[in-house]
Write a structure and sequence with these properties.
Blueprint (H helix, E strand, L loop, with lengths): L31 E12 L2 E12 L3 E5 L6 H7 L10 E9 L2 E2 L7 H7 E4 L10 H11 L6 H14 L3 H4 L12 H13 L5 E5 L7 H14 L4 E5 L3 H7 L2 E6 L2 E7 H6 L4 H7 L5
Parallel strand pairs: 3-8, 3-9, 6-7, 7-8
Antiparallel strand pairs: 1-2, 1-4, 4-5, 9-10
Helix pairs in contact: 3-6, 4-6, 6-7
The structure holds adenosine-5'-triphosphate.
């Protein structure tokens, strides 16, 4: 395995010249959430992910950046096995949470997706009331049964998602009656209602206006106190604002993975530098 441990402020030559990825692993300051080793993924005969090695840290925001088609969403979907739904996908390598490979045959997918929730690009509330959007999954997982507990859970999830004040008087209205930004916060409330460890976000603000985007970014900053957040974004400023760590993907590989400050102020690889400075996209 070819892992370069990047140290903050370390002065190294541009790694492209050495032909090696720059990968941050085993950061002593943070607890590990997910360990990814030698991950390769194919759609049929097309290899979309190549030898990915990453340690993702608890209670941090990690941004996945890179040009269109470089494998960011594919990687994100590996973390809660959403790619299982695509018949042509095959993969090798290790994705470990709490010492267990998420791809091992005994791993229960439903239980995994409870621990690793997901928020998509387009807000997708269920065609149900605001209240039922929140309690649907907790009921399915037998986390709550008494009405009073459900009420409490709905209020807490909506408060944590910064939506309670706006919807507390209309909980029985359809989730789809809310604005786009509110719907996305409802989806975040739905994701956190089952108390996951990790929340995956796939371009969560790309369909939203600037004010709703800022609200979600503030929310990510608050939520990382409780959850590990891994987000795909095309918006460099957003990655710089919200992420503690940033991974730069290119043609299915992680070319550089480092703390966000270093990535944006002193990227080690020429490819990452060119992307961040807008030389290609
Ligand atoms: N279901 C699929 N079947 C076949 N190929 C796929 C499938 N989904 C993605 N791919 C291919 O895998 C590669 C990675 O796609 P992916 O969507 O992960 O990239 P991305 O970096 O998230 O792109 P974008 O930023 O445009 O969303 C692309 O070449 C894409 O065409």
């Amino acid at each position: 395995m070819n892992i370069k441990v990047a140290q903050r402020g370390e002065n190294v030559m541009k790694q492209d010249e050495l032909g090696q990825p720059v990968t941050r692993n085993e950061d002593a300051n943070h607890e590990l959430s997910i360990r990814v080793r030698d991950l390769d993924l194919w759609y049929g005969s097309f290899q979309a992910l190549k030898s990915i090695n990453m340690d993702l840290y608890q209670k941090n925001v990690t941004a996945l950046i890179g040009p269109s088609g470089c494998g960011k969403s594919t990687f994100l979907r590996c973390l809660n096995r959403m790619n299982d739904l695509i018949p042509s996908v095959s993969l090798t390598g290790l994705i470990e949470m709490d010492g267990r490979d998420v791809n091992e045959s005994k791993m229960d997918e439903v239980a995994l997706r409870r621990r690793v929730g997901m928020v998509f690009q387009k807000p997708n509330p269920f065609p149900k009331s605001i209240y039922d959007n929140i309690v649907y999954a907790p009921r399915m997982h037998d986390l709550v049964s008494r009405k009073a507990d459900q009420d409490e859970l709905v209020e807490k999830a909506l408060r944590d998602a910064g939506l309670w004040e706006e919807v507390k008087d209309k909980l029985q209205q359809p989730g789809t009656s809310l604005s786009g930004g509110q719907q996305q916060r409802l989806c975040i409330a739905r994701a956190i209602a089952v108390q996951p460890d990790v929340i995956l976000m796939d371009e969560p603000t790309s369909a939203l206006d600037p004010i709703s985007t800022a609200t979600i970014e503030d929310l990510m900053d608050k939520l990382k106190q409780q959850f590990t957040i891994i987000t795909v974004t095309h918006n460099m400023q957003q990655a710089a604002r919200v992420a503690d760590y940033t991974a730069f993907f290119h043609l299915g590989e992680v070319v550089e993975y480092n703390d966000t400050k270093t990535m944006f102020s002193n990227p080690y690889t020429k490819k990452a530098e060119d992307y961040i400075t807008g030389r290609y996209g």
